[in-house]
What does this fold into?
Amino acid sequence: MISYERLWATMKKKGATTYTLQVKGQISSSTIRRMKAGESVSTNTLDALCKVLGCSLNDIVEYIPERGENS
It folds into this structure.
């Protein structure tokens, strides 16, 4: 599964809010709700997040294997 916990930590570190994402990144409130729920978003959204926050993909998402998955 993909975790967005790093996104929220990066936003806090950089003083960004969800409003910042909506205005500067043109990310919709429904997309933000999807990320809060741990649901998938497009690569375009991930690209926009990296641009707005000035960070890398690794700073906003993390892959966490589900139990029983082989590495």
Q: What stands out?
A: The chain has a mean pLDDT of 93. The first strand starts at residue 2 and ends at 3.
